[in-house]
Task: structure prediction
Amino acid sequence: MKKIEKEFFTVFTDFQCFILANMNKGDYIDITATHYNIIEFVYRKKDATAKQIAVALNVSQAAISKQLKFLIQNELLKQIQSEVDRRNYILTATDNGKFIVDNSETFRKNLTKQFSSNLSANELITFTSLLKKALEDHK
Result:
């Protein structure tokens, strides 16, 4: 790895760790980034099945089932039997689950303001453009 790549790696890792460490602002013990991602997916989709979550997060349905059990037991998600197909269950975010996502979003907005205030308008435009370019092939 070139020197500039090593420096980027270090700074990017610190930035990523800072965001992940502060992602879950709901004061719930044992909520992992995976739990958060599942709650946010269900909340944004309004409802989802375990299979839809597994496909979206690119993990096995068995792995999702274990996470869902925790989230349902801790009242962050609830499951309702489908009226169309009684074998399926629809997951929805509870008020507690919504709180975690909404609070995290508020945190990210505040963080964006904080970081933006350290950059000039041109630096912010350039930084945004570079992030978009870096993420282009990873959506």
Notes: The beta strands are 77-81, 89-93. The mean pLDDT is 87.
